[in-house]
Design a protein that fits this description.
The complex is a heterodimer of chains A (about 190) and B (about 400). Chain A has 6 helices and 7 strands. By secondary structure, chain A is α/β, with parallel strands linked by helices. A 7-stranded mixed sheet of chain A has the order 2-3-1-4-5-6-7, covered by helices on one side. In chain A, helix 1 crosses helix 5 and helix 3 crosses helix 4. The longest helix of chain A has 17 residues. Chain A is globular, with a radius of gyration of 15 Å. Chain B folds into 2 domains: about 240 residues, 3-Layer(aba) Sandwich (Rossmann fold); about 140 residues, Rossmann fold (3-Layer(aba) Sandwich). Helices cover about 40% and strands about 20% of the residues of chain B. A 7-stranded mixed sheet of chain B has the order 3-2-4-5-7-6-12, sandwiched between helices. In chain B, strand 10, helix 11 and strand 11 form a beta-alpha-beta unit. The N and C termini of chain B lie far apart (about 55 Å). The chains are: A alpha/beta (about 190), B alpha/beta (about 400). At the A-B interface, helix 1 and strand 2 of A face strand 1, strand 8 and helix 11 of B. Strand 2 of chain A pairs antiparallel with strand 8 of chain B.
């Protein structure tokens, strides 16, 4: 059987869940994996709930449906916990990382399925400090690099630099790299 | 040597267009293919291509400009989706009738109404009689490879027809995947320089295209166009083989999985065929003789080849990502059923319509199609010719 990891990102339009999925795929590709990353949204609307999906595998990926049973869930906006079951399809013990200023213990009871490996990081605050505005997607990649084995910090930083340099000035790219580094250090594991 | 790299579907198409370096692109961006036009416009602005980029005010104008530029003697490309393709409708027929090898990438998207930006094949299926060659891609690698081959196929002197290279909106256009991007020079050498055929700008040899043509000759002109399509089918086969010889990835009219000894088989196009491959493997592990026919070339329609490939099956289901309203079943089904019948086949065959407006198609959905075929194979009876897959009633 192929070794397949499926990651589902929950965010709101404009928070960068699509870009984060792409960067994760590029980073994983840099480590030699086969990858597939694609967003799922209605029309592009800032603030509307959206998801993006990433598949990482040692075999070519042919499956193209949306991800119902993720191995890892990343939540960019904790207000989504009020309206969506972000743990839907995540097995007991599955990994979930939430952007919040709360600790894992403080937020666990807000999850439909609390029996998961829960990590939290205040990616919004980190991004305001390092990038100058709330942009939680890249710091969440730093947290993911720390608590999962799908990618390492160095490859993540390289992938972010590659992906963001095409559209953003060097200072902003540098801020994103600092955000990743800080989230990597500050993520709380339950 | 090519380079293995992760790229989004739309960017892979733009990259192929950069390498092809067409003389003219006249495009009017529309979701979900906007990013191709945007990226290519940047290549033009940055001087990375020699293309004359024409900013137009609609898709009707876009295809008019493209057809005229091709008639003038240039290599011409264009990009669109859904309602944009619908607005090109009138001109699509003229491009093919003029025998101009304009290359159009279509990122498949549902036609209104209601308004929907996601994938189905209602846009290109609606243009199936316009005279364009149509190739469909399963993944990012294929949409890159198919666009390069489209140029070589359409421009062959025995073909000279426009080609649509189709990929699924969002599912492939917005998917980052690993693909092999070939060297610029290797791509340019493989497609070769453009050879105009009786171009209008050759003022020493004046030529007329598109004059009034009534009952005295019109039907002969249409019959002469009709005769180009067997050659086009042959060109799809030969260029797919030649592509494989140069780049190591061979293409044909279709791709099959497990069909040699299959009892039950599904016919699908584009990205859903990828998911179906996983389902075939799972069923094979259970001892079910399942097979898949992924149709790559819908126009020219390889009816004889499809009928031959499905001949040994006990039951077949054709999956349509478009409805033909009032027809009772989907467009791909009609043509395959006709090809089977005229080919003397009596294999029981049915049809599912799926994935309209981007509804995800899961492995379990496709597995349910195969389970239905197992019943039909046992009884030899098709209870209902056409059903809609995983739809709430």
């Amino acid at each position: 059987m192929a070794n397949l990891t499926e990651v589902r990102w929950h965010g709101r339009g404009g928070q960068g869940a699509k870009t984060a999925g792409y960067v994760l795929a590029i980073a994983a590709a840099g480590q030699g994996w086969n990858v597939q990353a694609f967003p799922e949204y209605g029309a592009e609307r800032r603030g509307a709930p959206m998801r993006s999906y990433v598949r990482i595998s040692d075999a070519p990926i042919r499956l193209r449906s949306s991800i119902d049973n993720p191995d890892i869930v990343v939540v960019l906006d904790s207000s989504l916990l009020e309206t969506e079951n972000v743990t839907d399809g995540l097995a007991d013990g599955g990994l979930i990382i939430i952007n919040t200023d709360k600790s894992p213990d403080e937020i666990r009871q807000e999850l439909a399925n609390p029996n998961v490996e829960l990590c939290t990081v205040d990616a919004s605050a980190i991004s305001v400090d390092t990038i100058g505005r709330e942009m939680p997607n890249t710091p969440m990649l730093g947290a993911l690099a720390k608590v999962s084995d799908v990618l390492d910090l160095e490859t993540t930083l390289k992938a972010v630099e590659k992906q963001l340099s095409e559209k953003l000035p060097p200072a902003v790219v540098e801020g994103n790299k600092q955000a990743i580094q800080r989230a990597y250090e500050e993520v709380q594991v339950a | 040597m090519g380079q293995l790299q992760p790229l989004e579907g739309n960017l892979a198409v733009a990259e192929a267009m950069r390498q092809i370096n067409p003389d003219v692109v006249a495009a009017y961006p529309i979701t979900p293919s906007t990013e191709i036009v945007q990226t290519f416009a940047n290549f033009v602005a940055d001087g990375e291509v020699d293309t004359n980029y024409v900013a137009v005010e609609s898709e009707h104008s876009a295809m008019s400009a493209c057809t005229a530029a091709a008639a003038a003697g240039g290599r011409v490309m264009n990009v669109t989706s859904a309602n944009g393709l619908a607005l090109m409708w009138e001109i699509l027929y003229i491009t093919a009738s003029f025998r101009q090898p304009v290359i159009l990438t279509v990122v498949n998207r549902a036609l209104s109404g209601n308004i929907n930006i996601h994938c189905d094949h209602s846009d290109t299926m609606g243009t199936r009689d316009a005279g364009w060659i149509q190739l469909y891609s399963e993944n990012v690698q294929e949409c890159y490879d198919n666009l390069i081959q489209a140029v070589a196929i359409g421009e062959r002197m025995d073909v000279r027809l426009p080609v649509m290279s189709c990929l699924d909106g969002f599912l492939v256009s917005h998917s980052y995947e690993m693909l092999e991007v070939e060297d610029d020079e290797a791509v340019r050498e493989w497609i070769g320089p453009y050879k105009p055929n009786e171009p209008l700008l050759d003022v020493e040899n004046p030529y007329t295209m598109g004059p009034i043509d009534l009952y005295d000759y019109y039907i002969e002109h249409k019959y002469s166009q009709w005769q180009a399509y067997p050659a086009a089918k042959q060109a799809v086969i030969e260029e797919g083989k030649r592509f494989g010889e140069t780049f190591g990835r061979e293409y044909g009219l279709m791709e099959t999985l497990g069909l040699d000894d299959a009892d039950i088989a599904v016919v699908a196009m584009s990205s859903a065929a990828g998911t179906a491959k996983d389902v075939v493997d799972k069923l094979r592990d259970e001892g079910v003789k399942a097979g898949l026919l992924k149709l790559r070339c819908f126009r020219p329609f390889p009816g004889e080849e499809i009928a031959a490939a499905l001949a040994g099956c006990k039951a077949v289901c054709v999956m349509d990502r478009a409805a033909s309203f009032g027809a009772g079943s989907g467009p791909l089904f009609h043509e395959i059923a006709a090809a089977m019948y005229t080919g003397g086949q009596t294999v029981p065959i049915n049809n599912v319509i799926y994935g309209l407006g981007g509804r995800t198609v899961k492995p379990a959905d496709i597995e349910s199609v195969y389970r239905g075929l197992m019943e039909i194979a046992d009884t030899g009876k098709v209870e209902q010719v056409c059903t809609w897959l995983s739809v709430r009633e």
